């Protein structure tokens, strides 16, 4: 539940037919970052074996995208341990950024933390955990690797030839690889799933020690909680109370388990 940022976006997505009769995805109200991503990166990433929906047409002024339809989904509970997915993310994180394409700015401020914790109203020990996590979070944003920013399991599809396709690029940015690893792990994750995901990723890109990468994934998981809660509050989302209830039930035990990494 913590990673469902895709359900909180503002764009309107519809399934349509092209003049040739093919099914396509039409996205209206796409952010300037996502439109620029498809304009500049769609072709070059696919050519590099980093698979994203092909852009068939776009209107920058209107924020309108026509994209390849990927009808088949990956089983959501399997995404974080799918070898092709992990390998593809490692390739993305090594891909050189293009110089003039805008990206989303990811941040985590003390004010963000305070706002989320007011809404969650949890015990003091769990709140202290989140303040410590925020104080250590600069490592998530000081890197300059390409990241999706929203790799949650619902954003992955499969082409008929088996290629894994990642869509929904409105949070496309520069940052730490952990920001892309964290959303794929079901729920909040635990020491076993976080450790296994980091070991798997390091088979393809071992630029960071295992323990340090695990810490960064835990920080990213914590940051996503703050992001989601604050987005829910801003947009008065109808599922807000359901999310908050789940977090209140889950986060105290999770924070206690993760504290050893901090």
Automatic annotation (TrEMBL):
Lineage top rank: taxon: Bacteria
Cited Pfam families: APH
Name by which UniProt lists this protein: Aminoglycoside phosphotransferase domain-containing protein
InterPro entries according to UniProt: Aminoglycoside_PTrfase (IPR002575), Kinase-like_dom_sf (IPR011009)
Residue ranges of domain Aminoglycoside phosphotransferase in the record: 28-185
Transmembrane portions of the chain: none
């Amino acid at each position: 539940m913590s990673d469902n940022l895709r359900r909180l976006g503002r764009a309107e997505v519809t399934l349509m037919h092209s003049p040739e009769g093919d099914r396509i995805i039409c996205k209206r109200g796409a952010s300037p970052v996502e439109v620029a991503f498809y304009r500049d990166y769609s072709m070059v990433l696919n050519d590099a074996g980093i698979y994203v929906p092909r852009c068939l047409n776009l209107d920058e002024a209107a924020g309108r995208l026509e994209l390849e339809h990927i009808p088949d989904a990956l089983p959501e509970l399997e995404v974080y341990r799918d070898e092709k997915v992990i390998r593809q993310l490692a390739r993305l994180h090594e891909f050189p950024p293009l110089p003039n394409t805008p990206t989303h700015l990811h941040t985590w401020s003390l004010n963000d933390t305070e706002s989320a914790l007011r809404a969650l109203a949890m015990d003091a020990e769990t709140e202290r955990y989140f303040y410590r996590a925020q104080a250590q979070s600069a490592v998530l944003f000081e890197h300059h690797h390409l990241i999706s920013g929203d790799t949650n399991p619902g954003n992955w599809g499969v082409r008929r030839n088996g290629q894994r396709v990642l869509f929904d690029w409105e949070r496309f940015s520069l940052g730490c690889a952990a920001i892309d690893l964290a959303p794929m792990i079901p729920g909040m994750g635990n020491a076993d799933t976080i450790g296994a995901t980091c070991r798997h990723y390091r088979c393809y890109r071992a630029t960071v020690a295992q323990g340090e990468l695990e810490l960064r994934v835990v920080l990213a998981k914590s940051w996503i909680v703050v992001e989601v809660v604050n987005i829910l509050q801003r947009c008065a989302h109808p599922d807000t109370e359901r999310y908050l209830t789940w977090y209140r039930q889950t986060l105290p035990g999770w924070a206690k388990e993760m504290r050893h990494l901090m």
